[in-house]
Design a protein that fits this description.
By secondary structure, the protein is of the alpha+beta class. It has 2 domains: about 325 residues, Alpha-Beta Plaits, CATH 3.30.70.20; about 80 residues, nitrate reductase domain like (nitrate reductase domain fold, Orthogonal Bundle), CATH 1.10.3650.10. It is about 30% helix and about 15% strand. The protein has 19 helices and 17 strands. β10 and β11 form a beta hairpin. α17 crosses α18. The longest helix is centred in the C-terminal third of the chain and has 22 residues.
């Protein structure tokens, strides 16, 4: 057993208001320069939808992540080393600029310099890459904001698999949720495995995945290999870039910019201890639905004396051990089991996890449109389909997501009884395997 520490993040989708503050502040700090105008290290998508870049979740199209071979080993879905090298000058799995969007600005100067006329001057859009006037803006990183666009296009969302999606195109059955996305800083990153230059590495001290700009040669295999499409090519510098988890701030004891500025306070940062020797076995389990549980088994109890002793022997600092024992990520992922990895079926073992959102429930339950189990609504009849959330967070396994939603509903009921009625109803907590707060 080789113990390593990872700085991880949990995002509570039940609290996200879709304000894009995280995206804008991240953009202003890290990618507000030539060559990465189109790149958003952090972006917020409205689901259901195809996302940014278009259809990034469709690995039949992009071949991102890992696949398990017949011999039980895993290899990048885009191919073994020989295939990567064979396609090094003509990568067939590389997104084009139109899959992201052509970044644009507006001709604001024309508003000041336009000659007098009967018509008001307008600021026409111009490409931020070529500087040429754009007749029509075709796409953007938040094009599907609040269910923008036709359902026919949004229905290409792969999370509709196993769901009769046609009924959700009807207005009365519509649902939506926000999904903030950033680099997952995976335990088993495909981007690092497929880089011909060996420029991508995972820091041992905190698990942050970085690109060595001196080693990078701009082959862009990392762009294809990342199933989350969170590696971007800087056309100006000829290098690849990605979210660096604001490591200068982390090293100074400060949160990431997206966490610091989050209006809804949905982001939780914490240290997690894991067994680095078990990564390959966890990523290679036969059934994709077992990947979530396999990753949970990698995480080690920071209060276990044996784990503490081994961590010290492996060089984990005392401050990090203390942080791991107080980690909100550990509590939500391991103790309460309400947080899940994004698309674990990619086998990258992501370390940015999500708490699933609850749907509007009270009016539907009161109107008799929703089943009720005891004091709580039936989570299988919430407005957001349980199968959709399971496809997003647990490779299609509904049970863990259902338990998380039940625990969140139980918490609401328990706290309402405590704050409004002035009573502690331990029965509500006991129904979902929890105990009441003191």
């Amino acid at each position: 057993m080789k113990i390593r520490a990872q700085i991880a993040m949990v995002l509570n989708l039940d609290k996200c208001i879709g304000c894009h503050t995280c995206s804008v502040t991240c953009k202003n700090v890290w990618t507000n320069r030539e060559g990465v105008e189109y790149a958003w290290f952090n972006n917020v998508e409205t689901k259901p939808g195809v996302g940014y870049p278009r259809e990034w979740e469709n690995q039949k199209k992009w071949n991102g992540g890992w696949q398990r071979k017949k011999n039980g080993r895993i290899e990048p879905k885009m191919g073994a080393k020989w295939r990567v090298l064979a396609n090094i000058f003509a990568n067939p799995d590389l997104p084009e600029i139109d899959d992201y969007y052509e970044p644009f600005t507006f001709d604001y100067e024309h508003l000041h310099t336009a000659k007098e006329s009967k018509a008001f001057p307008t600021a026409r859009p111009r490409s931020a890459i070529s500087g040429q006037r754009m007749e029509k803006i075709e796409w953007g990183p938040n094009w599907e904001e609040i269910l923008g666009g036709e359902f026919e296009k949004r229905a290409k969302d792969v999370n509709f698999e196993g769901i009769q999606k046609e009924i959700y195109g009807q207005f009365e059955n519509t649902f939506m949720m926000y999904l903030p996305r950033l680099c997952e800083h995976c335990l088993n990153p495909t981007c690092a495995a497929v880089c011909p230059s060996g420029a991508i590495y995972k820091r041992e001290e905190d698990g942050i995945v970085l690109i060595d700009q001196d080693k990078c040669r701009g082959w862009r295999m990392c762009v294809s290999g990342c199933p989350y499409k969170k590696v971007y090519y800087n056309w100006s510098s000829g290098k690849s870039e990605k979210c660096i988890f604001c490591y200068p701030r982390i090293e100074a004891g400060q949160p990431t910019v997206c966490s610091e500025t989050c209006v809804g306070r949905i982001r939780y940062l914490g240290v997690v201890l894991y067994d680095a020797d078990g990564i390959e076995a966890a990523a290679s389990v036969p059934d994709e639905k077992d990947l979530y549980e396999a990753q949970l088994k990698l995480f080690l109890d920071p209060k276990d004396p044996a784990v503490i002793a081994q961590a010290r022997a492996d060089g984990v600092p005392e401050a990090w051990l203390d942080a791991a024992q107080r980690s909100p990520v550990w509590k939500m992922a391991m103790e309460w089991k309400i947080a899940f990895p994004l698309h674990p079926e990619y086998r990258t073992l992501p370390m940015v996890w999500y708490v699933p959102p609850l749907s509007p429930i009270q009016s539907a339950a009161a109107a008799g449109k929703m089943g009720v189990n005891g004091d709580m609504p039936d989570v299988r009849s919430l407005r957001i389909p349980l199968q959709y959330l399971a496809n997003l967070l647990t490779a299609g396994d509904e049970e863990p997501v259902a338990l998380a939603l039940e625990r969140m509903l139980a918490m609401r009921g328990y706290m309402r009884a405590k704050t409004v009625d002035g009573r502690l109803d331990e029965r509500i907590a006991a129904e979902v395997g929890l105990t009441g707060a003191a």
